[in-house]
Amino acid sequence: MNDVLRALSDIGLDAALLDEAGPDARLRAELGLDSVETTDLQLELKKRFGVEIDLWDQEDYTLAQLAERIAPAGSPS
Q1: Are 63 and 17 in contact (CB under 8 A)?
Q2: CA-based, 20 to 30 A from 12: which of 3, 33, 34, 69?
């Protein structure tokens, strides 16, 4: 999950908000990602981990769900 938190930090999310976020925190509902930040995160995950994750393909991903999706790409969650 640390990789996901670093990616979120790198796209500009508030560090204090991320420090308080648990694995069940949802990207838009709890972390407040807007459409631009969601797209930036999607691109960042592709760049860093080589995985294409459509962050629009379900209602709202949790941090744990994203960590699970990037783990198979060879990065520990």
Answers
A1: no
A2: 69
Task: Classify the C-alpha dihedral 25-27-62-40 as positive or negative.
Answer: negative
Q: d(Cα 14, Cα 31) in Å, to the nearest integer?
A: 9
Rounded to the nearest 5 degrees, what angle is found at the Cα of 27, between the Cα atoms of 25 and 31? 70
Instruction: Compare 48 and 74 and report the one with higher pLDDT.
Output: 48
CA atoms within 13 A on the CB side of 32: 6
pLDDT in tens, 32-48: 999 999 999 999 999 99
Three-state DSSP class for residue 26:
strand
Would the pTM of this model clear 0.70, i.e. be above it?
A: yes
Q: Which two tokens stand for residue 60?
A: 């709202």
